[in-house]
Specification:
Length: 239
Amino acid sequence: MRNNIYSRTEVLLGEETLKKLAEKRVLLFGLGGVGGACFQTLVRLGIKHFTIVDNDCFSLSNLNRQSLSTLETINKSKVDVAIEFAKQINEEIEVEGKKMFYLPETRDQIDFSSFDIIIDCIDTISAKIDIALRAKEENLKLLSAMGCGNRVDPTKLYFTDLFKTEKDPLAKVMRRELRKRGLTSLEVLCSKEETLTPKEKIPNEEGRRKDIPGSTPFVPQCAGIFLAYRAYQILIDKN
């Protein structure tokens, strides 16, 4: 076996598995703590075709947990940074970046039908609901991340059906709204850990005080890696 980017992976997974992964197409929503770690892991795994969706830029407060952020990337588009990162790992990779805030009213800007798997790492509920409905319409596999904020213990992360989740306010709203729309099953990554109460409120850029969740390097990055591993299982039909 010749030495290459993925040779250390190939000795465990095999050449045919890597060829299969290289042909898959991934649609990833969100490049923050969870999504950035997921993207980075899938790039290093050998996925070569992505569409990534995020309208945000990196800020100073991202440095504690977002694996694609550095002091040099502050105020830079997360999509642009992610594409540059991917090219530094594998020059042959194909990444389409969409700098947009996905919402039901912008859904027509993305053709879901061309992908093998969808990974949702955003926290806007209306968008998450619409992504779930789009995946059902196209009969596509979707992995959706639930809340990772105000938690510190990555060992409490687990995959389950949305309708079996506990201790997750975001999942509770998702269950209610998706049930209304006739969707009664969705694989999600969530946490069994009780959310912690932030010791103080964090002012946003405009100086107004609002309930911004706390976060650590542990849970978001581990969640992204777990999502990447589960995607790998699905893409090679080990689910």
